[in-house]
Prior knowledge:
By secondary structure, the protein is an all-alpha fold.
Amino acid sequence: MLGGIPLHPLLVHMPIGLLLFATLLLLGSLKWTQLKLFSLITLVVGLLSGIAAYLTGDGAEEFAESQLNVARDAIHLHEDFALYSLLTFGLSLALLLLHYRSKKKQPLLIASLVIAIIGSGLLTYAGHLGGQMVYVK
Length: 137
């Protein structure tokens, strides 16, 4: 909280943009190999910012319950999907790092991309749930 205002809404947009962009970079790196390092850096920064956004969610939970009258179940569903997306992007990052160390490079890069696409879907749904809590009453 910053002056009674939760930090979570200020922080959530960074991981959404970075992690979705990292997915596009991974897709592009199938054709342009110089994008792999950029996708790796974007994934790392996106995950770190996602962890920060996730950790500030508790303060936003209290605010949403008291000021916005949001149901606890809706908040926890949003929180669960945010965690699932972070774990999925973490797996994508791990596969990308293994890709750098492997001799059979292409299958690990493709696996990292597929996992990142799944993570993008989970992240999009988590964002949708967050938006529902704020904008739909």
